[in-house]
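Dear support,

I submitted the protein below through the web form. The confirmation email said the job was done, but the results page showed an empty box. After a refresh the structure appeared. I'm attaching both so you can tell me whether what I see now is the final result or a partial one.
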Amino acid sequence: MNGEKKRARLDQRRAPIHEALENFRQMRVVPFDVPGHKRGRGNPELTAFLGQQCVGVDVNSMKPLDNLCHPVSVIREAEELAADAFGAAHAFLMVGGTTSSVQSMVLTACKRGDEIILPRNVHRSVLNALVLCGAVPVYVNPEVDQRLGISLGMKQVRPNPWELVAEKYPEGTVLEGVIKNITEFGMFIGIEDGIDGLIHVSDISWTKKVRHPNELYKVGDTVQAKVLTVDQENEKFTLGVKQLVDDPWGHVPDTYPVGCTVKGVVTNITDFGLFVEVEEGIEGLVHVSELSGKKVKTPAEIYKEGQEIQAKVIHVSAEERRLGLSIKQIKDEEERRKPKEFHSGPQEAGQSLGDLLKQKFEESENSENS
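What the results page shows now:
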C-alpha cells in the first residue's frame, strides 16, 4: 500500500503546487494580506502585464498551501518530484530570485576545497557562489535522462562540435575569425558555433612587446591566425598571429655574424646598458661594460634615445633572441690603428728624425745647384 502511494505521488505529470493554488482560488477565500497578495486588486498595471490568470493565484504562505520554510504537504511533494526528476536525494524550493536562491544553496552545502560537479553551461550565480565559498568546479557534459527527457543544456540535444574539430582544423591551418572577448592574457576568436580559439598575448607578434591585446585589437575585429594546437579532449583550441610569418630572428645570425660592425638607433637606456635597434623589430644590447674602456656610472651620461651609434657584434643567438654589441671594441680598434697611420710612410731601419731632416736638406741643395 505504501509503495503504491509513493509511486502515485512521484507521477511526474503532476503539478501539486499549481493544483493546490487552483483549488484554493476556487474556494473564493477573501485575502486580508497587507500589503500585497490581493490577486491583482489595486494594481491594474501588474494585472495587465502578468494576466488575471497569473495574479489570481498569487497568495501568501498559509496552512492550506503549505509553508516554504517547513514544507509538509504540497510544497514538500513538489520538492520530492524535483529530486526524483534530477536523480537527487533532496530538492529545495526557494524565493528571492534565481541568483540569490542558487547562491544560498551553494553557500549552505559547500565548503572550501569541495569538488562540485557542474554542467558546462551552468549559470554564473553558481560560479559566483563557488568563488565565495572556495569550492572547486568539476565540469561535465551530462546526458539526457531518457525516462524524463530532461537535458541540463542545449549541448545535449545537438551534436558535439568538438568531435570533428581536429579533422576540420588540423595544426597549421590558416583561418579567419571575429574577436569575441579580450583579456590581459589573450583574445578569444569565434571559429564556429560552440568553438572558440585562444590567441595568447605571446603569440601576437614576434618582435613587438604587447602588454595587453587591446593595444592592437578590439572586440568585433576580424583577424587571421594559424592553428597551433587542437585538444579535443579538453576542448582547447590555440591560435597564433605571429606564426603567419617567419620569425625574423631566424636570419639574424647570418645577417649579423660575430665580428661584423652594425649601425643602429638607441631605443632605450637602462642602468645596465643600451638597447639598439639594428632593424625593425630586432634590438641588440650594449652592456654598460662594453660602452667604454673607462668606468661609466650610467649610460645616460653619454648617450640619449634616438642617437645613432656604431657597434661591433660580440654575441648572437636566434634561440635566445639575443644580440650582444660592443662600442668599446670599436673604439679600441680605432686607437690601435692610429700609430700605424702615423708611421705609414717608407722608412729605413735605424734612421732617426735628424737623419731624415739632413737627407731632405741635402736633396734640396742638390736641386738648387743643378
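Response: this is the final, complete result; the empty box was a page-load delay. The mean pLDDT is 80.
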